[in-house]
Amino acid sequence: MSNRIFVAIDTPDLERARALATRVRHHVGGLKLGLEFFCANGPAGVRAMEEIGLPVFLDLKLHDIPNTVAKAVQSLAPLAPAILTVHAAGGRAMLEDAKAAAHPDTKVVAVTMLTSLDERDLADTGVGGSAHDHVMRLADLARAAGLDGIVCSGAEVKAAHRAWPKGFFVVPGVRPANGAAGDQKRVVTPRQALDDGASILVIGRPITQAEDPDAAARAIEATL
Ligand SMILES: O=c1ccn([C@@H]2O[C@H](COP(=O)(O)O)[C@@H](O)[C@H]2O)c(=O)[nH]1
C-alpha cells in the first residue's frame, strides 16, 4: 500500500461522507468507517462507500461474549472489509472466534488501549501499571489468538512492532505537529508513527474538519 493514511470518515451523513471521501481520495490510501457512520447507514452505507474504490476499514470495535461477536463478524463477512476491529479486552476466546468468522481477506485487529485514554483513565478502570505494559500484554494476547495485529498509539508502536515483527499496526491519535489534540491523549505525528513501525495511520479531524480537506490530506502526505 503506497499511501498509508486511512481517513476517518466520522459522520452519520452518507452524502457528506461520500463527498468528503471523493474529495480526498487521491491523497489517502483508504477510508475508515466507524460506529457513527455504521449506526446511521448500516451495510448499505458501507457498500456505497466501497464504490469510491478505496479499501474500507470497518472500525466497529466489537466487544461481547464470543458467540455474539462471532455472529456479528459473520454478518459483516459479505462486506469483506479490508480491516475490522474488535476489543482485545474481550479475551482470547472472543478474539479467536472473531478471526475464525471473518472474511479470509479481512485483517482482524484488536484495539488495545484507546488513544483517548491515559494512565489515570486506565487506573480508573481498575487497571494498574503503565500504558506501555497494558498495550504489550494485550498485543501478546492478540497474537496468541491468531489476530493480524493491533490498534495502539504511536507511543507504544515501536515496542509492539519489535515484539511482533509480522504484526499489522494501526495507529490513530495522529496529529500534524502543533495540531489540536481534541479528545486524544496519546498523540504522535504521522512521520513519527510510521518511523516507529505503524502499518497504517488513522487520521480524522485534521483532514475532515480542515477548511480544505484535500489540501490538508496532501500536506500530511507530503510529510511521510
Ligand atoms: O484507540 C483508538 C481507536 C480508534 N480511534 C478512531 O480513530 C479516529 C481518530 O479520529 P481523529 O479525528 O483523528 O481523532 C476516530 O474515528 C476514532 O474512533 C481512535 O481515535 N483511537
TrEMBL record:
EC number: 4.1.1.23
Residues forming the catalytic site: D59, K61, D64
UniProt keyword annotation of Methyltransferase present: no
GO cellular component: cytosol
Pfam families per UniProt: OMPdecase (PF00215)
Example GO biological process: 'de novo' UMP biosynthetic process
Residues the record lists as binding substrate: 10, 32, 59-68, 115, 175, 184, 204-205
Matching InterPro entries: Aldolase_TIM, OMPdecase, OMPdecase_AS, OMPdecase_bac, OMPdeCOase_dom, RibuloseP-bd_barrel
Catalysed reaction, written as an equation: orotidine 5'-phosphate + H(+) = UMP + CO2
Pathway linked to the protein: Pyrimidine metabolism; UMP biosynthesis via de novo pathway; UMP from orotate: step 2/2
CDD domains recorded: OMP_decarboxylase_like
Residue ranges of every copy of the Orotidine 5'-phosphate decarboxylase domain listed in the record: 4-220
Keywords, sorted A to Z: Decarboxylase, Lyase, Pyrimidine biosynthesis
Listed GO MF terms: orotidine-5'-phosphate decarboxylase activity
NCBIfam families (alphabetical): PRK00230.1, pyrF
Subunit structure, interactors included: Homodimer.
Family statement: Belongs to the OMP decarboxylase family. Type 1 subfamily.
Protein task: Catalyzes the decarboxylation of orotidine 5'-monophosphate (OMP) to uridine 5'-monophosphate (UMP).
PANTHER family: OROTIDINE 5'-PHOSPHATE DECARBOXYLASE
Protein name (Swiss-Prot/TrEMBL): Orotidine 5'-phosphate decarboxylase
Organism: Sphingomonas adhaesiva
Lineage per the UniProt record: Bacteria, Pseudomonadati, Pseudomonadota, Alphaproteobacteria, Sphingomonadales
